[in-house]
Amino acid sequence: MRIWLANHYAVPPNIAGITRHYELAREWAREEGAEVTVFLSNFVHPRRTFITEEEKQGIEQVKGLKLNWLWSFPHKQNDFRRIINMGSFAAVFFLAGLLKKKPDVLIASSPHLFTAFAGWMLAKLKGCPFVLEVRDLWPDSLIKMGGLNNKHVVKLLTWMESFLYEKADQIIVLTEHQRKFIADKGIDPDKIDLIPNGIVVSSWQPNPEKRVEFRRKMGVTEDQFVAIYTGAHGPANALEYVVKAGRHLKPNTAIVLIGDGPEKERLLKIKQEEGLDNIHLLDPVPKAEIFDYTYAADCGIISLADNEVFRGARPNKLFDYTFIGLPIISTVDGEVREIVEKNQVGIFAGAENPEGLAEAIDQVRSFNEEERAAIKERGRQYIDREGDRKKLAHRFYEILRELVNRK
């Protein structure tokens, strides 16, 4: 089967960012014998720079897998230039696809809808099934986060969203909330499938000798209790409250945040103005290294803004932390809280509550070795059931195969 997969923000594991699409494509090429082309941007969004030739040379070569690096307009801030960046990627993807031999199936992934719309047009022209992957509910999330209030743009994006739901031959969602949200719009539930984020279980093995090395890189001592946050530093992540939790931490406790985004400078300013030496803000690191940093910590933080749009979120950090075996502290109510509490892998600290977060970290610190070992085991069981990327990739492939055969 010849598969096209387009995501503006996809990256391979040697670059910090969203590795889901590369890892799915790699599994399809290796295990299913598919020919997979991934369309991705050579402008790396989290760090706002172009990928280097050296980085390209460091990417594993996989038979049957081709990475088609596309130009997109560079930008530094979330202003009009980011909109141009989105539109330019979608346009270049459409033009690049026109020149290629038709695939058996085309998958286009959000969050922004321009790539997905370009994917639908290509699929229509090529005469192949179109699969829409929904990573984020646009424009609903933009509106509820206050980032979109232009009624004309809202009307356009709302029309585009409904159009894509209706015209897609199959829809892939990452959370149960997304599935219900789309079905409630009158879309046939039978064409909506859940393929959540996950972990390539074989990609990492614990190495206790690295713990000291990576704690040193984080700027913490061996005897400190460390809570870690890994990922985007944007308005949606509500990290201001995580940084301000430093005011309330018990002695010999630290919080480490790894990543980048439009809020990074403001977070650094809060840390400096308040003299929070127990807060450490690090630059993004490749996915290949993030597990070693996470393993060197003692618990993991999941943080999102206190907004109903995130009640249905299921961030990749959930899978990262449970895979490593760290107890999880979530500030997010809804689907994440349900998973954490149902699987007994952590606690809910309250939303946007610095003092509550500090108290939760202290509570986790009080867990004995037996309790921590039980959390680790339950976390691994959860990954085996619902977060093993190999199993998820096979399930996704079977959906594609059935769709192609049916069409």
**Could you tell me the strand content as a percent range?**
15-25%
Low-confidence stretches: none
Distance from N terminus to C terminus (CA atoms, Å) equals 13 Å
What is the averaged pLDDT score?
A: 94
Number of strands: 15
Give the strand order, joined by hyphens, for the main sheet: 5-2-1-6-7-8-9
Q: Number of helical runs?
A: 16
Query: Rounded to an integer, what's the Rg over CA atoms?
Result: 21 Å
The biggest sheet amounts to:
7 strands, parallel
Helix content: 40-55%
Shape: globular
- The secondary-structure class comes to alpha/beta
Protein name: Glycosyltransferase family 4 protein
Domain Glycosyl transferase family: 213-381
Organism: Laceyella putida
Domain Glycosyltransferase subfamily 4-like N-terminal: 20-198
Structure report:
This protein is α/β, with parallel strands linked by helices. The protein has helices at residues 20-32, 53-57, 80-98, 113-126, 140-144, 151-167, 176-183, 208-218, 239-244, 264-274, 287-295, 316-324, 335-342, 354-365, 369-386, 389-406; strands spanning 2-6, 35-41, 43-44, 49-50, 65-70, 105-109, 130-134, 170-173, 192-194, 225-230, 253-258, 279-282, 299-302, 328-330, 346-348. It has a 7-stranded parallel sheet, with helices on both faces. Strands 12-11-10-13-14-15 form a 6-stranded parallel sheet, with helices on both faces. A two-stranded antiparallel ribbon has the order 3-4. Helix 1 (20-32) packs across helix 16 (389-406) and helix 4 (113-126) packs across helix 6. The chain is globular and about 65 Å long. Residues 213-381 form the Glycosyl transferase family domain.
